[in-house]
Amino acid sequence: MSLLEITNLSHSFSENVLYKNADFSLNKGEHVGIVGQNGTGKSTLIKLCTGQLLPDDGRVAWQSKTSIGYLDQYAEINLQLDMKSFLKTAFLNLYDLEEKMNYLYENMQEGDFQNLNTAARYQEELERQDFYLIDTKIGVVGNRFRQTHCTNERRSKSKGNFGKTFA
Ligand SMILES: Nc1ncnc2c1ncn2[C@@H]1O[C@H](COP(=O)(O)OP(=O)(O)OP(=O)(O)O)[C@@H](O)[C@H]1O
Ligand SMILES: [Mg+2]
């Protein structure tokens, strides 16, 4: 099965018909970009794919156990966070899971082995979702951003400090 399979999708806002009987599939390893004029329905499609909106008609089906990340076009950003901390917020569910797992393991040190299986399941899930590679991946994104921004900065001779916020 495809990673994402959209069949017969229709969606409108009152008279504004955005999608009518649309089909689309995304396979493993493929990347997709959505291009269109302002107001044609790009964000709406993403919201339909992520389940934030239910389609008027049709079906949006993800392969089971697919994890979806989403960064809204109008993201509300806590300006107190540096870039690394901000990027980590995309994985808050995994940090929560790690906390629960650590709590169970700590209880085991005090002789409570009841939740051994649960803790092991949490650990497997973290490994499956590459939790222990998050720092590395975020480092790569941060470095790429810094390189791009610093190059543009040199070109434009502006004095922004984005490059310094990723410690
Ligand atoms: N909740 C809503 N209720 C009514 N109309 C909506 C709603 N959300 C979006 N629309 C309308 O649907 C159309 C598509 O909006 P959408 O935000 O998906 O466009 P977009 O392609 O992402 O635009 P942009 O390039 O500006 O980001 C627009 O005309 C918008 O005004
Ligand atoms: Mg949009």
Question: Which terms would index this structure?
Answer:
alpha+beta; three-stranded antiparallel sheet; extended; binds adenosine-5'-triphosphate; binds magnesium ion
Distance between the termini: 41 Å
Strand order of the largest sheet: 2-1-3
Shape: extended
The whole-angstrom Rg is: 21 Å
Count of helix runs = 6
Identify every distinct bound molecule in the structure, by name, code or SMILES: adenosine-5'-triphosphate, magnesium ion
- Succession of helices and strands: EEHEHHHHH
Task: Report the sheet-strand fraction.
Answer: 15-25%
Question: Which range best describes the helical content: under 10%, 10-25%, 25-40%, 40-55%, 55-70% or over 70%?
Answer: 40-55%
Q: List low-pLDDT spans.
A: 159-167
Q: How many E-type strands?
A: 3
What is the structural class? Answer: alpha+beta
> Major β-sheet, in short?
3 strands, antiparallel
* Rounded average pLDDT: 87
